[in-house]
Specification:
The complex is a heterotetramer, with 2 copies of chain A and 2 copies of chain B. Chain A is of the alpha+beta class. Chain A has 2 helices and 5 strands. The chains are: A alpha+beta, B alpha+beta.
Chain lengths: ~80, ~140, ~140, ~80
């Protein structure tokens, strides 16, 4: 399947890009993050992050579908 | 109303939009960029949002406040981009018949915004360093 | 700073006067003239103060808030004279490093102002009647 | 002794003036109020009022001095 990934804050800095499209056999965000982490060596671990699929908060074990937009989010720090 | 904004908030307009003949109390909270954080001297801040989800979650929080508290109206805006010391980063305004619920709802909104809305800030220090700031909830657990 | 004022408050100036590089949170409360009270439709209000004691007691309350709470600054102004629906009757502003104390101090000031400062209000009703309003503490005991 | 009295809000309406100077043998605000009440028939009783002497809150039994400014105050209703 093909996924669009967007990166923000320190994940963007570490990925070196704000978005990328990847081909993957990952069936859920946890698998997808593990794959991307192998490439980008993020300093944050999965349990420090939240994930959104298609602009909605999701669980790490949600089913991914082709063309999904997946965003991994560092701890919120607004305000 | 919730909005991510890229230019300074128009405080006069935000206030006028909440004015209501039935309102007796109006409470606002403003978060300003301060010149220090956790022992470091701060030069400026950069806020970054995941806009689609930030707008959705921010709007949800304001709607929750309207449902939970006996208030007339509520609004919140959050800046993104580079902000200098003293600039407004976040604004919350609540109107109610009486002040009790206006205070409570204003507090609820800013507390939730800080932990649930996908916004991040990078601090630029006087020392020349810079860094992304840990979330408020994480920092308090240290 | 506390002041009894006879003309509309300059909200921009009040805010600028409290701006501080060290402040991260700014909380304001505004009391507005609302169009109803205890079941009656209100046309306008008239506020009257005993100026010498009102200024003295108001200043004492602001000073108490500065001493009690870990805040940077606090200010309050109260209008007198004839006010129309929607006009600002009282304004409180508090700055602090963190929001907790700013909220608490702002609440303290408005609560104390309402029961301790010699200011009275007369309501003019749509019905043609008018009357001096009982104090908040007295009303809540009814 | 001579006292200056100021009236505000409903007391002003009922006294028909905002200030007056009175000659009195009252030694404390309670006695003074009782005298003035005989003239003006106020709708508020002493226990509903507070009193200030020379712009400071005072007790009803404080000693009055010649030329004192005495103000009887209805329940506060600011804000």
């Amino acid at each position: 399947m093909k996924f669009k990934i967007e990166y923000y804050a320190q994940l963007r800095d570490e990925a070196g890009c704000s978005a990328e499209t990847v081909e993957s056999i990952a069936s859920c965000p946890a698998e997808l993050f593990s794959e991307l982490n192998a490439t980008h060596c993020f300093s944050l671990t999965q349990n420090q992050l939240q994930v959104a699929i298609n602009d909605s908060f999701s669980s790490w074990t949600s089913q991914l579908n082709d063309d999904d937009l997946v965003v991994f989010m560092p701890p919120m720090a607004g305000g | 109303m919730f909005a991510i904004i890229e230019t300074p908030a128009d405080l006069v307009k935000l206030r006028v939009d909440l004015n209501d003949r039935a309102a007796g109390g109006y409470v606002t909270f403003e978060g300003w960029v301060r010149d220090h954080n956790e022992g470091q001297q701060v030069l400026r801040l950069e806020y970054e949002a995941y806009p689609a989800l930030a707008n959705r979650e921010g709007s949800r929080i304001v709607a929750e406040a309207m449902a939970k508290f006996d208030i007339i109206n509520a609004a919140c805006v959050h800046r993104t981009g580079l902000l200098e010391i003293g600039e407004l980063a976040v604004w919350v305004g609540v109107t109610a018949v009486h002040r009790d619920t206006a205070f409570a709802a204003c507090r609820y909104i800013i507390d939730e915004i800080k932990v649930r809305v996908p916004i991040w800030k990078k601090e630029y220090y006087v020392s020349g360093d810079s860094g992304w700031v840990d979330c408020e909830a994480c920092a308090s657990k240290k």
